[in-house]
Amino acid sequence: MFELYLAAQAAATTAQAAQTQGVIVYERAFFDAYQPNSAFDLIARVPGFSFDGGADVRGLDGAAGNVLIDGQRPSSKSDRLQDVLGRLPASQVARVELIRGGAPGIDMQGKTVVANVVLKTGTSMKGLAAVSNKAVYDGRNLPGARLEGSARFDGKTLEGTLVYGGFVDDGAGDGTRVRRDASGVPVRVGEVDADGDGVQNLASGSYETPLYGGKLRINGRYNSERFSFKQVDKSAAGTDIEKNFNDEYEREIGLRYTRDLGPRNSLEAVFLHQEEDEQFDADFRSGGFVAEFGQHSLTKEDIVRGVWKFRPTATLSFEGGAETAINTLEGKTAYAENGLAVALPSANVDVEEKRAQAFVTGTWRATPKLTAEAGLRLEKSTISSTGDVALEKDLKFLKPRLSISWAPIAQTQIRASIERKVSQLDFGDFVADSALTTGQVRAGNPDLDPEQSWNGELTLERRFWKDGVATLTLRHAELTDVIDRAPIFTASGDVYDSPANIGDGTDDSVSVTLNLPLEKFGVKGGLLKGEGTWTRSEVTDPTTGKARRKSGQHPIDWELAFSQDLPAKGVKWGLEAYGAWRETYYRFSEVETYKLRTFVITYVEYKPRPDITLRAEIDNLTARNFVRINQGYSGPRTTAPLAYTDTQNLEFGRIFFLRVRKTFG
Question: 10 Å Cβ neighbour count for 503?
């Protein structure tokens, strides 16, 4: 574990020495003034750290977030890392270790910064009960409840969670829809009333026990979500009604066994099984026209992973291992217009992926100021499909990675990395999809190759004052086999939009982050945190042959948060702003753009007693709107003229959130 590495570093006895080595240790007392409730609250207050919950990918490699617990990543995939940390009471945390640029004994998995939450040892019993309610501006009330418990005794750990909660689609609301012809003349002006909400039920648990000189951890999780959406569009031409229903069920069981094989060697073995069963139904009615779409998908994943770790010295470590996974998808789609079935490309497809990966990683702290990490992964997979499309393909990729961190002077660190990345194919792209509001039914495409890229990254981090941190990161990627949108033609001459490999491209971004304590400005306990990313990409549009941005990419993303802790009064309050974004999808006969305005949250927490927390929150304080612009062409965009521009502008009001939380033990 990483704390063994720290114990071996005699020079790391001061905060300054730890910073020079790229590891900063924040003892539990550092966070007391922030009145934390959970481990996630501690992580949120670590200077210079931005939480990353991980990626939704198949397999364990690459799915991990940037937080470890006692030197290990959680063995569950479907359980969000934020929820795992949120269940850990702050009182159980001994310290948080911030690892910047790599450290012996830690597999960074491509992350440049990782936080390790070190828990206290000994016997304890902790519990939590919370009730909440979301009061939506239109009169809907969405109650929620959470019950959690954990016990540590004789080296064993038992944890359990039960959650019930309602949620709302804040991209729906009331507004207008205007369709204009090519000359800009309105041909349809209507009023839109849209709303969507759902409910979640979750049960999870885990048990860890000593076994044969090591530790065995068993975890299980069951989650169900039901969501419904309805949109009514009224105009002089008539009334359009769309209804969507989505039922989703997830099941997971995992096993992890870890054992030290001496003072320098350790072994980890993981098994994981996941299932996700989803049924989606859509119904669209306009005058005498009726369109019905249904899709059922069942995905399964089985993973076996083994890792051997070797630490010959305190400054050098190696890891080697292998992972194998079997993923399957059973997808069935049906579409009908006015009761008559319409054949779709790749409507019913069963997919199987057999994937294996071997990897080796080495980390060397060459000097107190210089650390290097190198890794190599070999991935092989076979993907086959049956049903409407029968094919099989074998894929093999080498994925090297090299990262270096250097601290030339105190308080300053430079991190550089180069890595070859290979994306995973999205099984959802293999099966047909729908967007009935715009009259679009989209084909699936099982004959896709993964997108590949060479990625370079350079980060400059500067720490100032007591806990101030600023970073600047530059990224560049050379892309191959970019997955975007392209037309697909059927034997009958019909043409549909479909996912496709469209060639090569580039992707560049600039990111800045800031952690600014405000005491020097007279705001005691105040903190300002922010981050922003500017992105630019270039690919060749398969329809027009012209250069454009990748579909779905945001040009700018930013967020800003102010908080102030007043421990003498038991109060914490703050404001959070999540910046407006825009994304555009380029299809063969339409260009679809979504715009979401800035989302603002304000909150106040009050602790009348150490074991009781009251939180009041106003979400969407600015009542921001959601805009969808659809530019439709009478044929392929390269030859056909613009036929219409359809603009939908929906306003969603405020949500008032109240929660009472009681801890035990």
Answer: 14
Quick: pLDDT tens for 602-628.
999 999 998 999 999 999 999 999 999
Is residue 634 very low, low, confident or very high in pLDDT (cuts 50, 70, 90)?
confident
Contact 622, 613 (CB under 8 A): no
Query: pTM here?
Result: 0.85
CA 451 remoteness from chain centre = 19
Name 191's Cβ contacts closer than 8 Å, sequence gap at least 6. Answer: 174, 175, 176, 177, 233, 234, 235
Element (H, E) at 51: none
Taking only Cα atoms into account, the Rg of the chain, rounded to an integer number of angstroms, comes to 26
Measured in residues, the chain has a length of 665
pLDDT in tens, 34-76: 888 888 889 888 988 888 877 666 667 666 778 888 888 776 7
Query: Does 324 score more than 60 pLDDT?
Result: yes
Q: How far is CA 108 from CA 54, 111, 403, in A?
A: 12, 5, 10
* Angle subtended at Cα 332 by Cα 328 and Cα 337, rounded to the nearest 5 degrees: 160
How far is it, in rounded angstroms, from Cα 103 to Cα 363?
Answer: 7
Q: Which H or E run contains 147? A: strand 141-153
Number of CB atoms found within 10 A of residue 401's CB: 20
Average pLDDT value for residue range 626-636: 90
* Cα-based angle 423, 66, 480 (whole degrees, multiple of 5): 20
Strand partners, 373: 363, 403
**Could you give all domains of the chain from N- to C-terminal order, each with its CATH number?**
2-664 (2.40.170.20)
Summarize the confidence of residues 81-107 as an average pLDDT: 82
> What per-residue confidence (pLDDT) applies to 211?
94
The CA distance from 9 to 316, in Å, is 12
Which 3 state secondary structure label does DSSP give 437? helix
Q: Which helix (H) or strand (E) holds 564?
A: strand 556-566
